TrEMBL record, chain A:
The chain crosses the membrane at residues 20-41, 80-106, 113-134, 169-192, 224-244, 279-299. One of its GO terms (biological process) is transmembrane transport. Pfam families: BPD_transp_1. It is found in: Cell membrane. Coiled coil: none annotated. One of its GO terms (cellular component) is plasma membrane. Its main location: membrane. This is Sugar ABC transporter permease. Residues 82-300 form the ABC transmembrane type-1 domain. Keywords: Cell membrane, Membrane, Transmembrane, Transmembrane helix, Transport. Belongs to the binding-protein-dependent transport system permease family.
TrEMBL record, chain B:
It comes from the Bacteria. This is Sugar ABC transporter substrate-binding protein. It holds the Pfam family SBP_bac_1. It comes from Streptomyces albireticuli.
Length: 311, 421
C-alpha cells in the first residue's frame, strides 16, 4: 500500500507531463506567431509614429503626422476606392461562380471527383505565374495575343487590355485571373456545405410540392448554405483587401505602377519598400488598412451572424 | 531495407539543407580556383540583359588580389532589393545603384567616395557625376553612361512619306501617319510613356524637373502645353500598348509592331544586327519657342554600403575597378551591351562610338544630354509626377490642374530634403 502523499503526487506529475507535451507541440507555433506576426505588428505601429526614411530604428518622433499625411494623400484614398471597386466585382462574381460550379459538380452521377479536381487545380497555381500567363499570353495587347486573335476572327482591332483606361479593360484581366485562381477553392467549400444538407429536407420539400430546381434551391439549399456563405464572403472580402500579387505582376513595370487599379497594398509597397523607403508613412498606411479590415470584418460578422448557432 | 520515419526525416532535412546551401541566390565566388588574401567582400549587380556581362564582372573580381570578392547577380526589382538590404548588416559591401538616392545619402547609408575620384573627377562625364554628388561630396562612381533615344525604321517612314520628326508636333503627326492596321506609329512603353519618358517632355520644352537652385523646374505654362500634346498620341491611337516586352527592350521595334520606339543606346547592337542600316536615331524632339532636343542620360553607379564591416577594403576595390582599371571599364561599357564609358578619355578613344548611329548618339548626348533623374527628384515626387503624366496621356486630364498638384507635392518634398540636410 502506498503512502498517502504518493497518490497525490502522481496526478501532479501527469499534469506536468501534459503541460510539457502541450508546450512541445504548441510552443514553436506560438513563438513563430509572436516573432513573425506580433513583433512586426508592434514595430509597425511604433514606426508609424516616427519619421523613418531609410531606417527601421528611427529617432525623430512625429506623433500622428504620418497618419494625417496618409489620410490626406489622394493616391492612398484612390487606392481604397480601387479596393472597393475590386471587391464589388470579385466578391459576387466568385461567389456566384463557385456556388454554380459546386451545384453542377454535386449533381454529377459520375466523374464527380475528376471534375472537382479539374476545377480545384487552378488554386494550386501561383498568383504570379497566372498573372504572367494572363499578361503575356491571354491578354497580350498586340494582334497575336490569344484574346486579340479571337477578336481578329470577327474583324475587330487589337485591344490593349492592360493599358486601356477608356473603357477600363484592365478590370476584365484582373477579375478573370482571380476568378480562375480562386473559384475552385470556394467551390470545394460549397461542395462540403452541400453535402451537409440533410436529404430529408429535400424529401420533405418534395412531399410539400416544391418543384425541383430554382424553387428547391431558393427555399432549401441556399438557406442551408448560410454558414458556408458567410464564411466564403468573409474570406473573399479579406482576400480582396490583401490583393497584391496579380495587380503588381499585371500592371507594374520596371519604373513603377500606373495610377489606376492600384490597391492599398501595392501603394504601401511602393511607399515603404520601394526606393522611397518611407517606412514611417508606409507603416501608418498599414495600420490604417489593418483597422479598416478589422472594422469591416467585425461589422460583417455582426450583420451575417458569423459563429451564431444555426437554427 | 525498410526506411524508418526518423531516417526519412533526417534524409529530408539533409536534402533541404543541401538545397539551401546550394541555391544561394545568384552568388558566385568570383574565384577561378585561385586564392586571395584580405577580407571577403560581397558585390551586387543588377541583372544585365546582355550576354557576357556577368562572366565579365566575375572575371574582374577574380583578378583582384587584395580581397575575396563575391559577385551577386540579382534579377528582379534590383533598386528595391538594395534599398531593403542597406537597412541590414547582411547586405552588400559594394553595390551597383541607379542612385544612390538622396535619402540614402542623407540617411548615412552609403560611404563618401570623394577621395577616390579627386584626381580624375574632371575626366568623368559631368552630366552623370552631378546626380551622384551632394554638398560637394561624391557618393557613387559612375560605371557607364546610358542614353535614351528614339529609334525609327527608315523604310517605314520612307514608304509613308514621312520625314524624321524634328519637333513634337511632327512626331505626333508622323506617329499618326505611320499607324496602320498592323503597325503602330510609336512605342513609348506599355503604359503610354509616363514612366519611360518621365521628365523628357519637360526638357524638350526647355524646362526641367528641378532648377539649379533646387526649386520645382516646371511651374510654367509651357509644361502643361507640352504634356497636353502627348495625349494626342493616345487619342489618335498612334501608340503601341500592351506589347510583350516593354520600352527598354527593342523587341516590339524588331518585330515590326511599331515604326518608332523610345529605348536606350544599350539596344543598338541588337537593332543593328537584325535591321542592318534600316534604322535611324533621334533625340526626343523639341517643343515650343524655348524648346530643345532632349536626351536623358543616366548611369549605373558603384557605391559602398555604410554598414559594411570592411569599408576601407570595399573602397579600395571600388577604386581599383572603377578608377584605376580603365581596361575593365572600357570592356564593361563596350564589349557586351552598348554604353558610353563614364570617363571622357575612354569615350573619346572608343572606335565603336565613332561611326554610324552610335556616333550620332554620342553627339546628341554631348549637345543635349541632361540628367534623367536629378538627385533632388526624390521617389515621392517621381510617383506623383508620373501618375499625373499617365492621367494626362491616357485619360486626357487637364495638364494644368494635374501639374499644379504635382508642383505642390514636389515643392513639399524639396523643402523636406532641404530641411533634412
Amino acid at each position: 500500500m502506498s503512502a498517502p502523499g504518493s497518490t497525490r503526487r502522481r496526478p501532479r506529475g501527469r499534469e506536468r507531463n501534459r503541460a510539457l507535451w502541450f508546450w512541445t507541440f504548441v510552443g514553436p507555433f506560438v513563438a513563430g506567431l509572436a516573432l513573425f506576426t506580433y513583433v512586426p505588428l508592434a514595430w509597425s505601429v511604433y514606426l508609424s509614429l516616427f519619421d523613418a526614411h531609410n531606417t527601421v530604428s528611427p529617432t525623430d518622433f512625429v506623433g500622428l503626422d504620418n497618419y494625417t499625411a496618409m489620410l490626406g494623400d489622394p493616391a492612398f484614398r484612390s487606392s481604397l476606392v480601387t479596393f472597393a471597386v475590386f471587391t464589388a466585382f470579385i466578391v459576387p462574381a466568385t461567389y456566384a461562380l463557385s456556388l454554380g460550379l459546386a451545384l453542377a459538380v454535386n449533381r454529377l452521377r459520375f466523374a464527380q471527383a475528376f471534375f472537382r479536381s479539374v476545377f480545384f487545380l487552378p488554386s494550386a497555381c501561383s498568383y504570379v505565374v497566372a498573372a504572367m500567363v494572363w499578361k503575356l499570353s491571354v491578354f497580350n495587347g498586340v494582334r497575336f495575343g490569344l484574346a486579340n486573335t479571337v477578336l481578329g476572327w470577327f474583324g475587330a482591332e487589337p485591344v490593349a487590355w492592360l493599358a486601356s483606361t477608356d473603357p477600363p479593360w484592365y478590370w476584365l484581366v484582373i477579375v478573370t485571373v482571380r476568378l480562375w485562381l480562386q473559384a475552385g477553392f470556394y467551390m470545394v467549400l460549397f461542395l462540403a456545405g452541400l453535402q451537409r444538407v440533410p436529404v430529408r429536407l429535400y424529401e420533405a420539400a418534395a412531399l410539400d410540392g416544391a418543384r425541383p430546381g430554382w424553387q428547391t434551391f431558393r427555399h432549401i439549399t441556399f438557406p442551408a448554405l448560410r454558414a458556408t456563405s458567410v464564411a466564403v464572403v468573409l474570406l473573399l472580402v479579406v482576400g480582396a483587401f490583401q490583393a497584391f500579387d496579380e495587380f503588381y505582376n499585371l500592371l507594374s513595370d520596371s519604373r513603377g505602377y500606373p495610377p489606376y487599379a492600384r490597391p492599398p497594398l501595392v501603394y504601401l509597397y511602393y511607399t515603404a519598400l520601394g526606393q522611397g523607403q518611407d517606412l514611417g508613412l508606409g507603416s501608418a498606411g498599414a495600420v490604417i488598412l489593418a483597422l479598416i479590415i478589422a472594422v469591416v470584418t467585425v461589422v460583417q460578422s455582426r450583420v451575417s451572424g458569423l459563429g451564431r448557432k444555426e437554427e | 531495407m525498410p526506411i524508418s520515419r526518423r531516417q526519412l526525416m533526417a534524409g529530408g532535412a539533409g536534402l533541404a539543407l543541401t538545397g539551401a546551401l546550394g541555391s544561394a541566390c545568384g552568388s558566385h565566388t568570383g574565384r577561378g580556383g585561385g586564392g586571395s588574401s584580405g577580407p571577403r567582400l560581397s558585390q551586387w549587380y543588377h541583372q544585365y540583359g546582355e550576354a557576357g556581362t556577368r562572366q565579365a564582372v566575375i572575371r574582374y573580381a577574380a583578378a583582384y588580389k587584395e580581397a575575396d570578392v563575391r559577385i551577386e547577380w540579382r534579377p528582379g526589382n534590383y533598386d528595391q532589393q538594395t534599398a531593403a538590404a542597406l537597412l541590414t548588416s547582411s547586405g552588400p559591401d559594394v553595390f551597383e545603384a541607379s542612385g544612390p538616392t538622396l535619402d540614402q545619402i542623407q540617411g548615412g547609408q552609403v560611404v563618401d567616395l570623394t577621395d577616390l575620384v579627386k584626381d580624375v573627377k574632371d575626366d568623368f562625364s559631368q552630366v552623370v557625376l552631378a546626380p551622384k554628388t551632394h554638398d560637394g561630396r561624391v557618393w557613387g562612381i559612375p560605371q557607364l553612361v546610358d542614353t535614351q533615344l528614339l529609334y525609327y525604321r527608315k523604310s517605314m517612314l520612307r514608304d509613308a512619306g514621312v520625314r524624321p520628326p524634328g519637333s513634337l508636333d511632327e512626331l505626333i503627326d508622323a506617329a499618326r501617319k505611320l499607324s496602320t492596321g498592323k503597325v503602330k506609329g510609336l512605342f513609348l512603353g506599355n503604359d503610354g510613356g509616363a514612366s519611360a519618358l518621365d521628365g523628357t517632355p519637360l526638357y524638350a520644352a526647355g524646362l526641367g524637373l528641378v532648377t539649379d537652385g533646387g526649386e520645382v523646374g516646371f511651374d510654367d505654362p509651357a509644361a502643361a502645353r507640352t504634356l497636353g500634346k502627348l495625349h494626342r498620341l493616345y487619342a489618335d491611337k498612334s501608340l503601341l500598348l500592351g506589347a510583350p516586352t516593354d520600352w527598354a527592350d527593342p523587341g516590339a521595334f524588331l518585330q515590326g509592331l511599331t515604326a518608332m520606339q523610345w529605348s536606350g543606346l544599350w539596344a543598338l547592337p541588337r537593332i543593328r544586327k537584325e535591321l542592318g542600316d534600316d534604322f535611324g536615331v533621334l533625340p526626343f524632339p523639341p517643343d515650343g519657342p524655348s524648346g530643345r532636343p532632349a536626351v536623358p542620360v543616366g548611369a549605373w553607379t558603384a557605391a559602398v554600403s555604410a554598414r559594411s564591416e570592411h569599408r576601407e577594403a570595399a573602397k579600395a576595390f571600388v577604386k581599383w575597378l572603377w578608377i584605376d582599371r580603365t581596361d575593365h571599364q572600357e570592356d564593361f561599357a563596350l564589349s557586351y551591351g552598348f554604353h558610353v564609358p563614364a570617363r571622357n578619355s575612354l569615350a573619346a578613344k572608343a572606335d565603336r562610338l565613332k561611326t554610324g548611329p552610335a556616333a550620332e548618339v554620342v553627339r546628341f548626348t554631348k549637345e543635349y544630354g541632361g540628367a534623367a533623374q536629378p538627385l533632388l527628384w526624390t521617389p515621392p515626387s517621381r510617383t506623383v509626377y508620373q501618375d499625373a503624366l499617365n492621367r494626362v496621356i491616357k485619360g486626357g486630364a487637364d495638364p494644368e490642374a494635374e501639374l499644379r498638384a504635382v508642383v505642390r507635392k514636389a515643392g513639399a518634398e524639396l523643402r523636406r530634403v532641404r530641411k533634412r540636410a
